[in-house]
Amino acid sequence: MTGTLPTGIGLWAGFLDQLPAAEAIAAVRDLEKAGITTIWLQEYSSLDPFVRAALYLQATERLTIALGVATIHARDPRAMVGAAATLHEAFPGRFALGLGTSHRHLAEARGSTYTKPLTALRDYLAAMETAAGHRNPLPPRFLGALGPKMIELAGTATDGLHTYFCPVAHTAAARAAVGAGPWIAPSQMVALGATETTDELRRYLGLCLGMPNYRANLARYGFTDADFAAASDALVDALAVPDEPAALRARLDDQRAAGADHVVLQLVPPPPAARVLDRVADGLGAA
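Request: output the structure for the sequence above.
Response:
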């Protein structure tokens, strides 16, 4: 690895996918001017995350982009190395690469065979090292990790891990597992609206609860099928914090005390791009 991983606060920027390229580029510039230092891109739309990262990096001066995460089912290790190394060379210190196995139904939709995630990622990382050699230095790498074995792999084979749809207790467990060195960046949902128990928010959480790996991970922290069936108050409280200054500061303090180096704020339910920009202008990045 060459380069460093972000600290402080990052912003989940999936909303950029809603915009035409020119408008997305303008939005990224506005985010940087408003004080956002890191944005997070994902790979769940039809848009290529590496191409988008290149556009946004070229359009800004200091912004860091974390790709959290690129699925290993979308490209072979040599192609992943080529894309990541190119961005790292062109924009040194401003790009971080997250890797993950995604979900079975999404991998199969790409025509890929979904094998055991731990084995697949371990083999993929080894193949990336072979492909990189000495001529293609890679940016910092991390894994999307939920379970104990994947967390262990992230701590030993990469620079750290990114977690999604997890309570603060998961951050603490991950830190205890990997020790002081590896970087940990949990996502933290921020619930828009009057309360965090709206029907719209519960419907959004229900989409994630439909995925077996998220349910299995939450079960490790005492949640049951009854919690999953209706997105119980306890589950909502564990996953999302109200968009209120005191509550948000307290949750960020909790994440940092649990061992987070960087916290990714995700506004939920997913709002229109204009609302995200308005919220950032109101000081979200300074939380």
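The beta strands are 8-12, 38-41, 64-71, 95-100, 141-144, 160-163, 183-191, 240-242, 262-268.
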